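Input:
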Amino acid sequence: MNTTVILKTEHLYKKYGSLQAVHDLSLEIYEGEVFGFLGPNGAGKTTSINMMCGLLKPDSGTVTIHGKPVTNHDSTTRSRVGVCPQEIVLWERLTCLEQLIFIGQMYGIPTTIAHQRSERLLEELDLVEKRNKQARTLSGGMQRRLNLAMALVHDPEIVVLDEPEAGLDPQSRVKVREYIHSLARRRTVILTTHDMDEAERLADRVAIIDHGSLLVLDTPQELKKRAGSGDILEISLRSTPSEPLSQLIQAMLSTLPGEPRFTCSGNQITLRVLDGANVLPSVLSILTNLQVGVEDIHLRANSLEDVFIHLTGRRLRE
Amino acid sequence: MKQLRQDFLSSLWIARKSLLEMVREPQMLGLELGLPLLFLAVVFAMYANPLLVTYPLVIYNPANQHDSLLENLDAMRYPDEKRIFQITPVESKKSLLTSLDSHSAAIGLEITPKGTVTILGDPLYARFFRASSLLETVVTRYLDRAGGIPEIVRLDESPLHAKGPSYEYDLYAPGMMVFAILMIIPQTAMLVSRELRWRTLCRLRLTPVSAAAFLSGISLAQMAVAFIQVPVIFLAAVVLGFHNQGSLILAILICLALAFSAIGLGLVTACFSENDSQAANIGSTFTMIQVFLSGALYIMPPFTLFTLCGHQIDLFDLFPATHIFLALQQVLSYGATFETIQFRLFFGVLLSLLYFAGGIILFKRLKMSS
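Output:
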C-alpha cells in the first residue's frame, strides 16, 4: 500500500451548542486508498468530512492536504477534493449534462473539457440516455448517480462519498459499487457509511468513530481480528429460556472445541466459535438434548459490526 | 488577474444557469412579468378619472331664489373649458339627501324660500372637500357682493407646470411602476435563497467561485429580466392610457436603475433568509416599506435626520427607491430633462451600489464562509 499521506487531520474539535460533534480527531489518509469512515448515525462522520473539505471550520485543529491547510480562502487546495454529499444536491431544472458542465465551469475548467468529461461520466454511470433530461425528472437512483458524477467533473485527487449507497435501488447500488471499485487506486476515496458490509467490501482501511471520537483505525481484517477470530453463530430460540436453563446451555456449549464465547439476550443466543460450520451439528445436538426449541439459525463470518459491538457494547443501528 | 477573469466568467455562467432555470419555471417568470401589468390594470380601473373633475351638484331651490348665483355656478369652467359643476335640480330635500347619501352627487345646495343658502355634503366622501371649497368660494363671493362687501380674498388657481398629469391614472401610474419594479426584491432574494434550500450553494462553496461572482451572476440574470420587464411595463401603461410628459428612453433608464437597486436590496434580503419562502416574506415586507417610504403611493412627511452641506437629509433619502421614484415622477409626469433629475438619479444609483456591495459582503460572511 502507498503510504504517502494525502490528507491529514490533527486534533480536530467541533461543538454544536452542548453537543461535542467531533472530539480530538487525528488521522492520516494515504494516497490512492479507499478509506472507510464508519460509525452510527450522529457519530460525527459528516461533520468530520465537512471539516476535511473546508465546508466547516473546526473549533480547533487542522486539516491539511499534501501538507497545505484547508481553509475557506484557499480554493486551490479545496478544489483537490470532490464531495458527493449524502443528500441529493442538484439543480432541479438543469439537465444532467448542463449541470455537470456548469459545475465544471465553476471549478474553472474550460467548457470544452468540462463537456468531454461530463459526457464520459454520464456514460460511465449509465446516464447517457438521460443526458438532456432535467434532474427533477430522474428517478431517485439516477439522481444519486448524477450526484456522484457532480463530485468528479473537476477530476479531484480525493473523492469524498458520504453514504453513497443510501437510498439506492439494487440496480443503482451495484452500479455505484462497481464505480467506487473502479475509482480505487486512481484516486483517494473517503467513504463514510454506517453500513459495515459496504465498508468491509470497499475500504482498504477503516476508521470507526462514535460520539465524535475515533475508536479504532486499521484494515478490516486487522479490526476483525481485534474483535476475536472465528465465526458467529446466531440462534433464535422458540421461547426465552429460564435463568437455570440458560446457564445449562452455556455450560454445555462451552464444552465445544475452539473456546466458544457465549452471550444470551432474550431468546437470542450468540456464539463466537472457530470453524462454525463443523461445530454446528454439535450445537444442535446439545440444544435438542436439552429440549430447547430452535426457531432459526444463522451462521456468518466475523464482521465489522462485531468489531463495533466489541468496542461499544452496542449495535451500529441502536 | 486570473481570479478576476475566473470570477467574471463564473458570473456569466451563473447568470446563464439562472436564466435557464427561470425560463423552465414559467410560473415564476410569468409572475415576474405579469404582476406589474396586473398592478397597472387595477390602478387604471380604479383611477381612470381626469384630475380636473366635474362635480355633480344637486340643488333644492323650491322658490327659485338667487338666480344669478345659480348662473355663476353653471358658468364655472376649468382652464380647458370643462365644467366644474354639473348641476341637477331636485324637487325635494329628501331627493337631495338621497343623492348625497348614494354619492351620485358630490355636494348639495339648499336655498330656502327665505333665501338662506346651505351647503350640504358627506365629509367622509373624498370628493366633497374639493367641491365644497370651490362652492363655498363662489357662494361667499356672491353673498358678499349681494351685501355690498368688497372682495378682499380672491381664489386664483392655475397649473404651475407647463406639463402635468391630467388624469388620476397619470398621477398614480409612476408609483405603481415603482411598486412593480420593486417586486424584484423578493424575486431576487428567492432566487438566491433557493440555492440554500436545495443546498446547491454548499456545492458552489466547494468550488473556487466567490460570493461576488455568485451574486453578480444572479443579478445579471435579474437585470436581463428587467430589460424585458421595464419596456413591457411602459408599453402596458401607455396602452392603458398613460400620458407620458417626458423622454421615454430616460424613463426606461431610470427604471433600469431602480431594477438594479431592487436587486441590491434583494441580495441584502437573501442574507437574512434561510429558504425561498422566508425570502419571499421578508422581501415582500421590504418592498412594501420601500414603496411607502419612497412616496410612490402616498406623499410622505419629511423626517429630517441631519443636514449635510446645507442639504436636509431625510430618513427616506437613505432608500435608493425614494430618489429614483422622484426622478421618474419628474420625467413622466412633468416632462423633466436629464439635467433636472441627474442629482436624484446619481444619488439613487450610488445608494444602489452601496446596497449591492453591502449585500455581497453580508452574503459572504453569513452564507458563504465555513
